[in-house]
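Pasting two entries for a bug report.
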Amino acid sequence: MTDNSTPSEDEGDKGIDRRLLFGGGLIGAAAAAAVSGGLIGATASSAASAPLPSESDLATHLNQADHLFKLTASPRKNFAGGYLQGADEQSFPILRGQHGSVYFVRLEVGGYREPHWHPTAWELNFVISGRAKWTSLGTHPDGTYNNMTFVAEPGDLVFAPQGHLHYFENDRTDAPLEVLVFFNSSAIEPYDDIGLVAAVNAMPRDVLAAALGVPESVLAAIPKEVKPIVIGHRR
């Protein structure tokens, strides 16, 4: 596998989350196509006012764009516990307007994906190699949270519904974990998710302490700096 390392998590290129800006459906797809077609970095208002492409324009794009993408030879986003490589609207232009992206994720021994949820997308995970320990927390219509923990092995699929809190980690101590992750979103990972550290820091410490039933001083060690931690490492 080629090592084309790119800047770490502190130097990410956020891009624009088109699903959040424009919503789903035809308007969302058309606006996403307009943004990726040359308005990257523009404001939401200027992108929203762009003319809608016709079906023939989209068809022409699909006929002309490259259909092949070397995913595991593409630039990596490196983190403490591993790395990811992605195919999205920016890196693989044929995905423009398709509301789809895919990522190759490698977790080293001790690596984990920060607990998080996606407000605008579901994800489908295929385990290529290694063993993944998963936890998913859903809703509670019957009064009990739908909390599941399980192990996924090579050849297994794991589905994370939109909005459900989830995480996975490398469950082996002698080998890395490799997972292929598909999203029904064109946003660049990790900028279409809400991480646990960010969620905790979004609440006042006194409110958080009251909700947890602990003294506020207990929370002093929680880091206040919020970073897009995608892949961490257990120390």
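Entry 2 (this is the one that rendered wrong in the viewer):
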Amino acid sequence: MFEKIFKLKENNTTVRKEIVAGIITFLTMSYILIVNPNILSTTGMDKGALFTATALATILATLFMAFFTNLPVAQAPGMGLNTFFAFTVVLTMGYKWEFALTAVFIEGIIFILLTFFNVRELIVKSLPRVLKEAIPVGIGLFITLIGLKSAGIVVGNDATLLAIGDFSTEHVWIALLGLLVTGVLLALNVNGAILIGILASAGFGVILGEVHLPEGSWVSLPPSIAPIFMKFDWADVFTFDMVIVVFTFLFVNLFDTVGTLIGVVSKAGFTDEDGNFPQIKKALFADALGTTFGAMLGTSTITSYVESASGVAAGGRTGLTSVSTAGMFVLALFLAPMFSMIPASATAPALIIVGLFMFTAVAKINFNDMTEAIPAFITLIFMPFTYSIAQGIVFGIISYCLLKIFTGRFKDITVTVYVMTALFLVKLVLDSIHIFQK
């Protein structure tokens, strides 16, 4: 049966290789079961329901990828996108989490349509390459700041804006230990380094009395998703803020998914000399369906996980690897008490390390051309300093377009960039008028 569905012999692999590869992929990305509920619960969403929704969305989206594309790629709620959901849309812009969930659902529907009409590939080609390279760097810095803040390593300060935290508190040392353990394991190429680092932090927290073990059985039925299932809010759906939020979800997820897919698939040896592969449309469709159903379940945008490369490195070559990963998440569903006891200080190292992974893209940016270096720098620096991924993208695009116009390099600007710049400038003008009227 497996041979017929996944073409194992054709891909020079075996059932054992695929299952082991899937388990390894699970080990490297299972931290999402801890981190995603911790991040999204800051909006007021039920943490137990988020654990179940995260697991179910991951299982469903990964199975979509397995059976639609036969690729060893797992999908789950995206890091960076969940922080935008929680810290920008809800905690900064002031909207309810139902508004953000509605934006994710709309994004999923739009992605399905864009994929069907082959528009997603066209969008990728029309936007400036330098901004595509700067966005993950900015998100990496933003995620790192979130991790440092949640651990108490960095705190707010009226005099200097930011300051070092209080190192006499236990949660700072819980996070630092986890960061050290994770760093050492990554340096030694140990699979599951991020998860082990989180568990080490939690264990240290138990010793310090900051983390309390679950009472009774560690195995239980998953918490109900009823508090967040299909909780959409359509009241503000036709506002400009909704347009900006949906666009940001679309934009970030688009390049995150495409970049991850190309990276993982090329590692498996499936891409051609131009970096393309025949399953790209099916893979993007699986991503779009995952996001749509994930929103219905109650979680943030689904994306392909770069941690899938660990499974590929272990020999995974087909969708059976993804099925194996999904199966491990099914088992994890019944271990909710273990996952829910882990505090934000224990997951902070994961955020910091993921920030590092995303920051490495800075090497791709051309800093010799000021019309590209400045927009890239504005994009990546505005994200952590304004505590908003959206603002980084907005000002990055505006600065790119204006610098190119005033230096006479009109050929570098696409119609899409002109349109977006015009919309963003109109928004800034309207905001300014509103401020002056006050």
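Dev reply: Rendering is fixed now. As a check, the viewer should reflect this: The chain has a mean pLDDT of 87.
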